[in-house]
């Protein structure tokens, strides 16, 4: 076992410790031993863990992400479903195996610094306003580079547990092109910025996410498999995913999508609690996306004050998804990768063979939002098929929509609604 104190870091939260931390990680990998990060605040840029490394955080140990983009090495990676060169995360496991990251410590990404670059201090400005004015909403999320907190990429047999992840600049924990990954007992909190997903399972297999507690500014736990033409080119589905025994607070719940061009199948979501979330079980895609979402089981879900228990929108957020430029020879590689389309015949996502059972959704008497029990919207030419809801008790302001759904079965589904559908809720489609 090695301790970080043996390498004499500053641990003051003000002086960069990146080189010292990396030296310690490299030595731990060479010796195939554990590196213990003792209590202290370690200011750092991107760090890289090799195979057979165990990084253990003691209570009071914090990795504080540097606020300068040049402290995060540019790497070949995937961002929001598209392969490109982008900054590394704070902790990176790249093409490695048998890596463990655990312990009751914290990773703090100093998110507000990065969020302000994207949307300004008032959430109405920043680069987002600049790109919106140029009708370039579809590219701004990729152009405004922000570090993630943990990235597992092309890796196998890895575990991440017990940490607190907070204030991430972008996604908190991303798992891409991986197999046999276990994520447990994470606390994700204070993520009120743009694209601050909690845990993203991206074109990976045999992944379990369990016993976590999350509060996010975007999707809390999400399964993805690539965006549009680039996702179709890579063609790596997400499959054999288990998500269970988590508590989800603010954010958009458990989501499949929106990047699903390679497909998602065999996902089991169970024994989940949702408290004051915008969504419970969510699926989202777009007309340009393609892919098949199939063989999903969601059961034993408890939802309280959830605005949209079931939001399944196959043409979600057209402003973000619709490209305004065609690929040209002189286009920047990143832009060309994002702009790439799949063949028209393969567009529009197919959803089929979904089972939802044993769900309770309740609302406080003074719940202020308009809650919609169901929002299932597909395309007539590619309807959802074989959708089953069993043993559900849902309370909502309104029933909602069922559009382009074939072979829909409600078995012992009880819905209490207060009024007719409110058209004002249609704006949720654009979030």
Automatic annotation (TrEMBL):
Pfam families cross-referenced by the UniProt entry: Glyco_hydro_28 (PF00295)
GO molecular function, one term: hydrolase activity, acting on glycosyl bonds
Coiled-coil regions listed in the entry: none
Source species, domain of life: Bacteria
Enzyme class: hydrolase
Family the entry assigns: Belongs to the glycosyl hydrolase 28 family.
Name of the protein described by the UniProt record: Glycoside hydrolase family 28 protein
């Amino acid at each position: 076992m090695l301790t970080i104190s043996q390498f004499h870091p500053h641990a003051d939260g003000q002086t960069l410790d990146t080189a010292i931390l990396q030296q310690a990680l490299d030595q731990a990998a060479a010796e195939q031993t554990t590196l213990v990060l003792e209590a202290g605040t370690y200011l750092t840029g991107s760090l890289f863990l090799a195979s057979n490394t165990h990084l253990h955080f003691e209570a009071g140990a914090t990795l504080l992400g540097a606020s300068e983009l040049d402290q995060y090495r540019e790497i070949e990676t995937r961002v929001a479903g598209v392969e490109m060169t982008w900054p590394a995360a704070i902790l990176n496991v790249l093409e490695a195996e048998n890596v463990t990251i655990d312990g009751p410590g914290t990773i703090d990404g100093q998110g507000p610094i990065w969020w302000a670059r994207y949307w300004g201090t008032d959430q109405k400005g920043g680069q987002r306003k600049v790109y919106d004015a140029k009708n370039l909403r579809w590219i701004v999320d990729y152009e405004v580079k922000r570090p993630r907190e943990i990235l597992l990429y092309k890796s196998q047999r890895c575990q991440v547990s017990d940490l607190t992840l907070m204030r991430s600049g972008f996604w908190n924990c991303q798992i891409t092109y991986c197999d046999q990954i276990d994520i447990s007992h994470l606390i994700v909190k204070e993520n009120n910025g743009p694209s601050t997903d909690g845990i993203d399972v991206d074109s990976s297999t045999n992944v379990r996410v369990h016993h976590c507690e999350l509060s996010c500014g975007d999707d809390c736990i999400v399964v993805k498999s690539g965006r549009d033409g680039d996702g179709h080119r890579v063609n790596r589905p997400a499959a054999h995913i288990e998500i269970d025994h988590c508590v989800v607070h603010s954010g958009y719940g458990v989501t499949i999508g929106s990047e699903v061009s390679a497909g998602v199948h065999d996902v089991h979501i169970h024994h989940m609690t949702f408290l004051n979330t915008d969504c419970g079980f969510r699926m989202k895609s777009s007309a340009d996306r393609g892919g098949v979402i199939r063989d999903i089981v969601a059961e034993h879900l408890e939802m309280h004050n959830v605005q949209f228990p079931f939001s399944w929108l196959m043409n979600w957020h057209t402003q973000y998804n619709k490209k305004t430029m065609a690929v040209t020879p002189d286009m920047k590689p990143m832009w060309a990768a994002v702009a790439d389309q799949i063949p028209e015949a393969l567009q529009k996502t197919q959803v089929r063979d979904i089972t939802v059972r044993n769900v309770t959704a309740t609302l406080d008497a003074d719940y202020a939002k308009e809650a919609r029990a169901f929002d299932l919207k597909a395309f007539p030419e590619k309807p959802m098929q074989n959708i089953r809801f069993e043993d559900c008790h849902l309370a909502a302001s309104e029933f909602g929509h069922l559009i382009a759904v074939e072979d829909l079965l409600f078995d012992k589904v009880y819905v209490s609604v207060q009024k007719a559908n409110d058209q004002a809720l249609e704006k949720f489609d654009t979030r």
